[in-house]
Amino acid sequence: MNRWSLTSILMACSVVLGCMNGAGVAESASPAKAAKELPNRMPNASFEKAAKGKPAQWQTHTWAGKGAFSYADTGRTGARSVMISSEDGADAGWYAIAATEPYATYRLSGWIKTENVKTDGTKGRPGRGALLNLHEMQPVATKAVRGTADWTKVEVIFETGGEDAVQVNCLFGGWGLATGKAWYDDIRLEKLAMKEWKPHIAIDAAKKGEPVSKYIYGQFIEHLGRCIYGGIWAEMLEDRKFFYAVGAKGSPWKPLAGSGATTMDKADSFAGDHTPRTAAPGGIVQGGLGLVKGNKYVGHIWLKGAGDAGPVEVSLIWGDGAKDRQTVTVEKLTALYAKTPFEFTSGAATDDGRLEIKAPGGKGAFHVGTVSLMPADNVNGMRADTLRLLKELDSPVYRWPGGNFVSGYNWKDGIGDRDRRPPRKNPAWKGVEHNDFGLDEFILFCRLLGTEPYIAVNSGMGGVESAVQELQYANGGPGTPMGKLRATNGHPQPYKVKFWGIGNEMYGGWQLGHMTLEKYIKKHNQFAEAMRAEDRSIQLVAVGATGKWSEGMMQHCADHMDLISEHFYVHAKAGLASHVRQAADRVRGKAEAHRRYRKEFASLKGKDIRIALDEWNYWYGPHVYGELGTRYFLKDALGIAAGLNACARNSDIFFMANYAQTVNVIGCIKTTKTDAAFATTGLALKLYRKHFGAVPVSVVTEAPLDVAAAWSQDGKTFTISIVNPTMNPLEIPLDVKGVNLTGAGTRRQIAGTDPMAYNEPGKPPRVTIDEAPVKGISEALSVGPCSVTLFALDVK
Q: What is the mean pLDDT of residues 94-112?
């Protein structure tokens, strides 16, 4: 792209504005009247508007250290300003979001007053002082003010590139710590010049990159929120093994009113720490069940009790009338637990169905060991509606069981008789881990979907021996101790799991078993050596995090890994183009870092250790679908598509990418109790997995467009994917060489006029993939507003 030089900008602006001060030039505290002020794009620029005791539209953030934020009763102009202070050192800021225009030149300016601001003598790395900067737009920053100074004007001129919004920081510290006090006032953001943007795409199909790995279209599922339980797994009952005492806080089970008492028996527990014992004629009930009229539901119950405690009635209830229920009666109880199956057909639709268990005519007491209820169309315990969408998603690999969850998970809790597996408190998240979905179920899940398993072992609170045993359980022959146990559990043939991750995010203080990099290097190598000694065929994924952690792992563990994990999550950002480009920028940044590692580290000489980006996504907004159950919008689909484009552009570095997560929990599929639907991000994943090419080629374009192109594996189709994060339909000039196109093909598009459009389970979708044939394509491509468009063009 052709850019104006800073010199030419200054010259042009000097004609309009007269003499202009450079960045960080001190002026008199009493402002001189400018010949003509340009419109100010900053919200509440002088901090005079208050909202709940704070400056409206401004927020605070601390990156390091400890700082204090004040809404000061003084100002350079007006009555207010904002202030930051720190005694021990802080890197902190007040910030606001301002709309900008792509391909424009702006001036950011403001006034800063300081009192004894110092950047040396702090406990951490020294910062710059008090300044203004643009967040994540390096190196756009003003000169810093230090020491004690009256109101001082600072400014910087910058170009927006493809950004349509910026975060302006009133920064204290800056890439390090500062002490003292600083006040900020009269922040201005003025557009100085504008360049006309004309979109274009130039493609050289003869310049081919490395083939795109199919594994960049992977998925991740974790035992968290409603991803598995309430999403993938079909069980309708919460806490079916009674982790919580009946009637206690947290328990979905309630004693029936006016009936015999229910107590928890610890001495004779069926699964877990205790089992409910109910004195006849008592009972227990769970509500909140989603039922569909005419649908069948199946399940079973384990009961025991005194001979005179029965009969026990198990009823599915869909209303308040005497006939709004079906009942299965267990006539006689024995002193030993017995399993009784049942089947019901719901007479009405409701989100508040109930399962009731009672002994209305008995005299003794009965125990409920556990109970299960599922839709009759479940597929080996999995929701049929979710499974249908997962098959359409067609992911080649699934990572499991975590995530933070894995660092406190004992995999042995999840094997054997499902009804006897112990319920546990989820070690990393909220709620109960029922242990109904364990290693064997995960493998079955993968087989039902025709996908490959990728298992992470517990290197947090877990040890090497447990990891080796888990590997042997999955891959060992029936003659090995764990292979024999697997066969006993009904699975005689080894699972042949190829991908194994050693731990998850062990660099993070939030992680169970977190330790220093130096200690974890040793632990990782111990795990790797022991696991490879058990099975030489496996591919090991190490925990990475771009920066010091990945650098240390690459330098000291390169002989003990095949891939290195990287993670990122991005959040909501003002401006459609700015929001969309985040994922692609993160992918590019990680690729650049790893290319640098390959050049700098002798440990990587002759090795090709690629990235497994086994967690990546947008993550923001309210939890509509349970814990971390965020909603995704059309603009997020564009961002995921741009991220996939970036993976294709960096196919020499990225071997795997696992969208995190899959169902409900920051998921590309959303479910209610009775319905499932693709979120917008799921549509983007589905589109690329099925239709984007396999051999990427050279593409030149300009932001805010994001474009990738690739040959199909057989060379018969040429694909071009275009992300248009503007609200305008575009006719884009196309310059293609190195391929002879017929001009015909298919256009598949996700588009709309509302970036905030979303899909909801049980309702007609607002966002879809529209497919249509195209003809006569040679010199231009048409795309809709706010769109992801994938052209599959025929080759002569």
A: 95
